[in-house]
């Protein structure tokens, strides 16, 4: 076993047992420590580490985190929570929470939706006497499933879109991912509706009054329009890019610059630009940068190529794509897995790319480390002083959803390929 593969395994183990580590140790600390160790051991050079990072993706995430932070400052999270609390039926409140989280993920990425959704989950948990850990895991599931239906719903989709260069990325995701996404979202609601009812009377595990107050204590920004303009710009540019590729044969726009342009109104006209900049989820950005360094070292070591063996020439096969992307995501997280898979993949059909996108996305529902949005939910909950969920709680509650979503997505894509759609 190579040093890079061993360090990657230790990172996974460290995150799995983090509940027994000192409270000050965060998930991003573990990933950053792993990257630093690999640099110190010479497994990857500083120059190679810099080039291993997908800076376009980092810029895009910085932009959507800025937009999410600005939207939070406008009181969006509180307004959504208030709207949900007006519904006397707790089941309807949970349904709309799941749907709203999924839509937010499809528009602003699952990572930004996680930032906005955590305070809502805390408020709803107190109001309906739900166990906070269950509501937070429901948020993770909703933003993961919601993100699979959009080309910008999550970082791995962005990587796939850039590699595949779909002529119309919006239409492609509507055809290949919308139906399984909706079916999986229904399954998420029923699964967690049962869980919140089952755990509703466990008072010791509900959110405390102090945490709820902290989640509600938002100093509302005086100007809401810069954040709303940024959202409109982001959606407009992405739609325009898709239409431009389809009807005018225009080249693709770098997603990083799309994001940076979209967040300009916030930093040029917003009255809370410094606070927005401060509240950007820097910890998650560091997590991503460190994660790319770790996977860069792993790729350079040749360990993945050795483990794949003869399968490396069959990576365009739908079943192999599904199996490798799912299980590799459990150890290395879905974003770097997709990036590595795309480097190893020599061509492929639309079905191959969409199988990689959808399966790697729903794979994020099994372990905390499998998707960065899960890490963000944990970090945001801790930021509000709340105890989120353990590694094994997450796995146990998510296991049925994961199996169901993988099967539905796989069957749908294989069926479309059999019909000659791709």
Automatic annotation (TrEMBL):
<feature type="transmembrane region" description="Helical">
    <location>
        <begin position="397"/>
        <end position="421"/>
    </location>
</feature>
<feature type="transmembrane region" description="Helical">
    <location>
        <begin position="28"/>
        <end position="50"/>
    </location>
</feature>
<dbReference type="GO" id="GO:0055085">
    <property type="term" value="P:transmembrane transport"/>
</dbReference>
<feature type="transmembrane region" description="Helical">
    <location>
        <begin position="227"/>
        <end position="248"/>
    </location>
</feature>
<dbReference type="GO" id="GO:0005886">
    <property type="term" value="C:plasma membrane"/>
</dbReference>
<feature type="transmembrane region" description="Helical">
    <location>
        <begin position="282"/>
        <end position="300"/>
    </location>
</feature>
<feature type="transmembrane region" description="Helical">
    <location>
        <begin position="130"/>
        <end position="149"/>
    </location>
</feature>
<feature type="transmembrane region" description="Helical">
    <location>
        <begin position="169"/>
        <end position="190"/>
    </location>
</feature>
<protein>
    <submittedName>
        <fullName>Inner membrane protein YbiR</fullName>
    </submittedName>
</protein>
<feature type="domain" description="Citrate transporter-like">
    <location>
        <begin position="25"/>
        <end position="344"/>
    </location>
</feature>
<dbReference type="InterPro" id="IPR004680">
    <property type="entry name" value="Cit_transptr-like_dom"/>
</dbReference>
<feature type="transmembrane region" description="Helical">
    <location>
        <begin position="94"/>
        <end position="123"/>
    </location>
</feature>
<keyword id="KW-0812">Transmembrane</keyword>
<keyword id="KW-1133">Transmembrane helix</keyword>
<feature type="transmembrane region" description="Helical">
    <location>
        <begin position="354"/>
        <end position="377"/>
    </location>
</feature>
<feature type="transmembrane region" description="Helical">
    <location>
        <begin position="57"/>
        <end position="74"/>
    </location>
</feature>
<keyword id="KW-0472">Membrane</keyword>
<keyword id="KW-0813">Transport</keyword>
<keyword id="KW-1003">Cell membrane</keyword>
<dbReference type="Pfam" id="PF03600">
    <property type="entry name" value="CitMHS"/>
</dbReference>
<feature type="transmembrane region" description="Helical">
    <location>
        <begin position="254"/>
        <end position="270"/>
    </location>
</feature>
């Amino acid at each position: 076993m190579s040093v890079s593969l061993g360090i990657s395994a230790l990172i996974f183990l460290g995150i799995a047992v983090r509940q027994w580590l000192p409270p000050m140790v965060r998930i991003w600390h573990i990933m950053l420590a792993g990257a630093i160790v690999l640099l110190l051991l010479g497994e990857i050079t500083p120059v190679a580490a810099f080039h291993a990072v997908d800076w376009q993706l980092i810029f895009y995430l910085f932009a959507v985190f800025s937009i999410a932070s600005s939207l939070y400052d406008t009181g969006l999270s509180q307004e959504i929570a208030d709207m949900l609390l007006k519904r006397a039926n707790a089941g309807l409140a949970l349904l709309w929470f799941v749907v709203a989280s999924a839509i937010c993920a499809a528009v602003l990425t699952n990572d930004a939706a996680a930032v906005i959704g955590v305070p809502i989950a805390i408020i709803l948990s107190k109001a309906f006497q739900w166990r906070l850990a269950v509501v937070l895991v429901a948020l993770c599931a909703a933003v993961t499933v919601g993100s699979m239906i959009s080309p910008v719903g999550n970082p791995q989709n962005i990587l796939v879109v850039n590699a595949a260069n779909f002529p119309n990325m919006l239409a492609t995701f509507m055809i290949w991912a919308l139906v399984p996404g909706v079916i999986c979202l229904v399954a998420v609601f029923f699964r967690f509706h049962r869980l919140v009812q089952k755990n509703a009377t466990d008072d010791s595990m509900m959110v405390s009054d102090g945490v709820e107050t902290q989640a509600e204590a938002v100093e509302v920004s005086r100007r809401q329009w810069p954040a709303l303009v940024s959202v409109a710009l982001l959606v407009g540019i992405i739609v325009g890019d898709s239409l431009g590729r389809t009807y005018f044969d225009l080249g693709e726009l770098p997603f990083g610059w799309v994001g940076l342009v979209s967040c300009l109104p916030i930093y040029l006209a917003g009255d809370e630009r410094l606070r927005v900049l401060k509240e950007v989820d820097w910890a998650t950005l560091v997590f991503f940068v460190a994660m790319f360094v770790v996977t860069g070292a792993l790729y350079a070591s040749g360990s993945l190529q050795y483990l794949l063996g003869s399968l490396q020439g069959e990576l365009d096969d739908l079943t192999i794509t599904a199996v490798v992307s799912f299980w590799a995501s459990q150890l290395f997280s879905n974003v770097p897995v997709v990036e590595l898979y795309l480097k190893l993949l020599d061509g492929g059909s639309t079905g191959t790319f969409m199988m990689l996108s959808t399966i790697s996305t729903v794979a994020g529902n099994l372990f905390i480390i499998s998707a960065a949005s899960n890490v963000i939910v944990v970090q945001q909950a801790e930021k509000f002083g709340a105890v989120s969920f353990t590694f094994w709680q997450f796995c146990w509650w998510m296991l049925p959803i994961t199996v169901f979503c993988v099967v539905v997505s796989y069957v749908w894509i294989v069926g479309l390929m059999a019909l000659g759609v791709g």
